[in-house]
Amino acid sequence: MAKQDDDRPAAAVQSVDRALQVLEILAALGQAGVTEIAAELGVHKSTVSRLVAVLESRNYVEQVAERGKYRLGFAVARLARAGSAQLDLVKLSQDICDGLAGEVGETANVAILDDDRIVNIVEASGPGEIALQTWVGQSCPAHATSSGKVLLACHDEAQLRARLAEKLESFTDNTVVDIENLQRELADVIDRGWSFVTEELEVGLNAVAAPIRDAGSQVVAALSVSGPSYRLSEDRFTEIAKLVVAAADAVSRRLGWVERE
């Protein structure tokens, strides 16, 4: 019995690999039937039929007018658009981050929301003596970061509660762990147009962030500046926020956003 359990992960991995190969075959051929795909994969037609049925149920493949032929479905295009949009954001924001980091003298990041966490996709280091240990690809809890608060602020109460745990994780004495208190903070973020954290994720670390919007005025990312609390002190937040908002708006305009008066 243990042997069967051990075999299941390997079989699942093989199925995933074959499903990806099916997508690659359809991408190369444009359209193909089960027999053609089976020949390309070197497997029985029944195996391909099962794979195609699953892919079709998730809209990754679809049948063409000619019965029995399949082509890539709209779900593949949706993933491609999402990936392209993220790559565009990286390309369009890097030089602005570089300029902001140089002007402020601290580290600048662009982050996107991933469930209840943020992921940094762009980084520019400031010339300060102490470099912050942040890296592109690192994820952080959204509720304890300035970027996360900007990105969470556009969610209504139901969306927020669905995304976050009822009791939020604490990292320092300043971390907001009550979701109702967080909601009040997020309302202030919307009114103010930017967010800040004071040693909420890490003792001695402060940050200020502003939203990046796309052509439809949707908040798609956040641009932040972070630094040691002795340099990026609370009395500098308003001054720094003006620069961060201006930089975030510059990225937004590159994405097609037009400010409404």
TrEMBL record:
Listed SMART domains = HTH_ICLR
Name of the protein in its database record? IclR family transcriptional regulator
> What keywords does the record list, in alphabetical order?
DNA-binding, Transcription, Transcription regulation
At the top level of its lineage, which domain of life is listed? Answer: Bacteria
Give the IclR-ED domain ranges. Answer: 75-257
Query: Does the keyword Transcription belong to this entry?
Result: yes
Identify the PANTHER family for this entry: HELIX-TURN-HELIX TRANSCRIPTIONAL REGULATOR, ICLR FAMILY (PTHR30136), HTH-TYPE TRANSCRIPTIONAL REPRESSOR ALLR (PTHR30136:SF24)
PROSITE patterns, per database record:
HTH_ICLR (PS51077), ICLR_ED (PS51078)
- List, alphabetically, the Pfam families matched: HTH_IclR, IclR_C
> What positions does the domain HTH iclR-type occupy?
13-74
